[in-house]
Amino acid sequence: MELPKVLSQATFAGRDIPVGMAMHTGRAYLSTVVSVTDDMQEVSAFGFDVNVAARLAAAAEPGEVLISEAAMRAADREIDNAALRSFELKGVDEQVRAASLHRS
Known about the structure:
Structural class: alpha+beta
Distance between the termini: 10 Å
Oligomer: single chain
Shape: globular
């Protein structure tokens, strides 16, 4: 929750850093990806729920943190239906409902 506050006060090359974030839960597949020359390696996450999280983060306004309804249920948090917004996300057939946790 502190990251949006910090980023709202930070600049890069004299410009604001407009970052929105999101939290979602579900299944992710992790894989180590190695370059052809074997000099570079990284761990990447793949899967439908990873896509949902990325698309939801892209939908967040600068300084906003969205949490999906699925993440709220997984955290056993009470859901205020009035606070939920519906998002149509590319590559996702059904709307994803999420609430804003923070907006700087």
